[in-house]
């Protein structure tokens, strides 16, 4: 029944396409991008029900005023802009390190890894599920502690821990 499983995402997309026209545009989009104050208030009422949304509306007007002089840039302009080059470099480094840390390989080859480790074929799906649950748990845990400790300390700690584990792995392979 793999074809039914794969078609499930198509079913969800079809449901979204059917119901999406009945939902209003995002209030910030209507106000900030389109400049439609009346449409923004109507969208707020439709999404959030009747009420007084002047505080939220005023916050959006302040945001619009703060971004009034800024130009919306396309991807090529962002890549050429020297003022964001450092941020782009850091983001690229983080994305590359995520690709090189091995999580994608573990996720893709989990069943083969466990077969090679001579686990019983009947328990491999459960162990694979356990790996996925542990990834979910670690993502949830990391997301909750980022605000407490700060991103810099967690990134450095993660990289140091990865380097130590890789060094221990290399030493164990050599021995």
TrEMBL record:
GO cellular component terms, semicolon-separated: plasma membrane
Record field: transmembrane: 6-24, 90-111, 123-146, 153-174
Major subcellular site: membrane
Membrane topology (UniProt): Multi-pass membrane protein
UniProt-annotated location(s): Membrane
Keyword Transmembrane helix: yes
Signal sequence region: 1-17
Keyword annotations: Membrane, Signal, Transmembrane, Transmembrane helix
Taxonomy, superkingdom: Eukaryota
InterPro entries listed in its UniProt record: GLUT (IPR045263), MFS_dom (IPR020846), MFS_sugar_transport-like (IPR005828), MFS_trans_sf (IPR036259)
Gene Ontology molecular function terms on file: D-glucose transmembrane transporter activity
GO biological processes: D-glucose import; dehydroascorbic acid transport
Keyword Transmembrane helix: yes
Major facilitator superfamily (MFS) profile domain residues: 1-175
PANTHER family: MAJOR FACILITATOR SUPERFAMILY (MFS) PROFILE DOMAIN-CONTAINING PROTEIN, SOLUTE CARRIER FAMILY 2
Stated name of the protein: GTR9 protein
Organism: Nothoprocta pentlandii
């Amino acid at each position: 029944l793999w074809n039914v499983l794969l078609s499930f995402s198509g079913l969800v997309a079809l449901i979204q396409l059917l119901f999406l026209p009945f939902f209003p545009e995002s209030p910030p989009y209507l106000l900030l991008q389109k400049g439609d104050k009346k449409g923004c208030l109507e969208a707020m009422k439709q999404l959030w029900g009747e009420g007084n949304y002047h505080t939220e509306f005023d916050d959006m007007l302040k945001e619009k005023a703060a971004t009034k002089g800024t130009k919306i840039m396309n991807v090529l302009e962002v890549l050429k802009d020297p003022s964001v080059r450092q941020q782009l470099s850091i983001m690229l480094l983080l994305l590359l390190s995520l690709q090189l840390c091995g999580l994608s390989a573990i996720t893709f080859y989990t069943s083969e890894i466990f077969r090679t480790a001579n686990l019983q074929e009947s328990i491999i799906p459960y162990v694979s599920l356990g790996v996925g649950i542990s990834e979910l748990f670690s993502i949830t845990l990391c997301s909750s502690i980022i605000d407490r400790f700060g991103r810099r300390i967690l990134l450095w700690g993660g990289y140091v821990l990865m380097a130590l584990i890789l060094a221990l792995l290399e030493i164990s392979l050599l021995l």
